[in-house]
Amino acid sequence: MIQPDFSKGLIPVIIQDYFTNNVLMLGYMNQEAFERTEKEKRVTFFSRSKNRLWTKGETSGNHLHVKSISIDCDNDTLLIKAEPLGPTCHNGTDTCFGTFENKSTDLGFLQNTITDRKENPKEGSYTNELLNNLNKAAQKVGEEAVELVIEAKDNNEELFLNEAADLMYHYLVLLTAKGHNLNDVIRVLKKRHS
To answer: Is 160 contained in some domain?
Structure first.
């Protein structure tokens, strides 16, 4: 169980997007804000300017839905991975660090989305159907690989890229169904490279 050290007062809290891994903002918490965040699964800070608890999105509706909470080695800084429900900054931007869009630059967003679906199944979800049927997931990877090879022989870039996306999606679902993730494969590749 996480037990932050509030003995020196407020502690900093870094908010990171669960799906894209981009840093969204920095805020501060006291014990009460931390407990409310844990209980309600919505990020609540202690606002230094308002001198009170403040739940992100309480007026805008742009809440930060908590996915995980980690603590640093000194127990005095938190990292919260959250799903933002709208722009994070009060200025209307995706992050509080400029105007860049909160987009993923790697496949982490897709891996996190699939992992989230595994941990929080939704009825009627195609992803959950594949995660629960290893044979079907493996079969789809094979089918998509063949379709990609076929499209590679033609000159239709759009069809080729769509088949590449289909293969990547099904491949990550299969990895997740087998209890692995993209980082496991990256470790193998790095070991081979050294």
So the answer is: yes
Give me the number of domains the chain comprises. Answer: 2
Tell me which of 168 and 186 has the higher pLDDT: 168
What is the rounded distance in angstroms from the CA atom of residue 70 to the CA atom of residue 1?
10
The two three-digit tokens of residue 193, written as one number = 């490279």
- DSSP assignment letter at 95: S
Output DSSP code: residue 66: E
DSSP strand pairing (11-17 vs 23-29): antiparallel
**Token pair 């980690």 in the structure block, residue:** 70
Q: Residue 99 — pLDDT band, cuts 50, 70, 90? A: low
Tell me the H-state helices in 41-181: 108-119, 126-131, 134-152, 157-177
Tokens encoding 60: 């805008």
Residue 42 is given by DSSP the state: B
Q: Residue 55 CA to chain centroid, in angstroms?
A: 20
Residue 103 CA to its chain's centroid (Å): 11
d(CA 94, CA 103): 9
For residue 56, count other CB atoms closer than 10 A to its CB.
Answer: 24
Q: Does the residue 89 lie in any domain?
A: no
Give this prediction's pTM.
Answer: 0.70
What is the C-alpha R_g of the chain? 20
Residues of the domain holding 165: 108-193
Structure tokens at 126: 């195609």
| Six token digits for residue 165 | 């996306």
Nearest Cα residue to 31 out of 10, 14, 47 = 10
